[in-house]
Amino acid sequence: MAAARRYDEDLRAIGQVLEARDISVFELKHLADNYVIQGLPEQTGSLRSKVRQWLRRLRSGSSAELLALGLADVEELSQAGRAKRSNAGRLADFHSVSNTLRTIGAYLDASEFELVELHKRRISITLLYRDKAGHEREEDRPISSFYRLFLELCGKRGQTQQTPLQSKS
């Protein structure tokens, strides 16, 4: 199996990039030291902006965005995300792409799986990974099935961020 990656951190950083581009439905492939993501931006905004988006897609022949991120890019994004983070006590939103991906990454890390592909749809996800024995496996799950793990992770993060109070004798 490949060297252990922290998929929770990698996928959270990738999720932030996708959120910035309004992409919530996508396919992600992990190829050697790269992540390749193809997704469709959400149709938001006024009728005029939707028509502009439609014309742009018509001219380019595709509506999908293609992103390729190397491990160094992901690490840089992760550090930038950590530096921007504020409100440590704020309740995280499970439905944000970055938190959903962080949770799925933590699942992969805890299970010691190697990510091959991830297909995210509106309410479900398909994971393709290699287990410890090197066998490829596929899971098709509702995103909501990761919610309990998300709550556990939030609890652990909250415990590590709290500073113990010193009692005066």
Secondary-structure topology with pairs:
Elements: H1 7-20, E1 23-31, E2 34-41, H2 47-60, E3 65-70, H3 71-84, H4 97-111, E4 114-120, E5 124-130, E6 136-142, H5 147-161
Antiparallel strand pairs: 1-2, 1-4, 2-3, 4-5, 5-6
Question: What keyword list fits this structure?
Answer:
six-stranded antiparallel beta sheet, 6 strands, 5 helices, 169 residues, alpha+beta, disordered C terminus
Describe this protein's structure.
With about 170 residues, this protein is of the alpha+beta class. It has one domain (about 5-85, about 90-160). The chain has five helices and six strands. A six-stranded antiparallel sheet has the order 3-2-1-4-5-6. A hairpin with a 5-residue loop joins β5 (about 125-130) and β6 (about 135-140). It is globular.
Strand order of the largest sheet: 3-2-1-4-5-6
Low-confidence parts:
162-169
| Mean pLDDT over all positions | 82
Order of SSEs: HEEHEHHEEEH
Percent helix, as a range, is: 40-55%
Radius of gyration: 18 Å
Main beta-sheet annotation: 6 strands, antiparallel
Count the E strands. 6
Our estimate of the beta-strand percent is 25-35%
Helical element count? Answer: 5
Structural class: alpha+beta
Gross geometry: globular
